[in-house]
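Good morning C.,

I know you're traveling, so I'll keep this short. The sequence:
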Amino acid sequence: MKSSITVRKANLGDYDLIFSMHEDWFKDEIDERWGWDEQWQRENFKEEWKRDVFEVILDHGEIIGYSQKTIESDHVYLQSIGLNPEFRGKGIGKEIMEEFVKEAFESFSQIRLSVAVSNHRAIELYQKLEFVIEDRSEHSLTMAKKLTKLVEQNSCSNSYSLRE
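The tokens, ready to paste straight into the viewer:
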């Protein structure tokens, strides 16, 4: 990973900033599909915070993005991942996803995610990482990557853990 980029488990002190990022990046899409109800969004996010694994992506110690994952018995579901706009298109998301796939490979048989059909850059990245489209709707694609151990993996250093 780029030397200035790190990932760590989110803590309660990160909560407000992560919700703000969620609102900034996803409000328009949510509003278009279901309507944005501020109170419901805050309550739902609080429940997701308790249930899911949130991680923050940092550049030189400053939070520039986050990811949210739901752990299931046989797969992990990437609920959301995002970077501040000035950090997009620089390969950071690709590196984060590659590390995520390597780590998920150790414990899960599959990674699943949904992506807005309008997010062409993310769709292209996921396809390069061998995610396949399983379902589509007017607004989103459901994609998955099977994590089958066909050959022995090289050992690698992971900078974060899905289960911490």
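Safe travels,
E.
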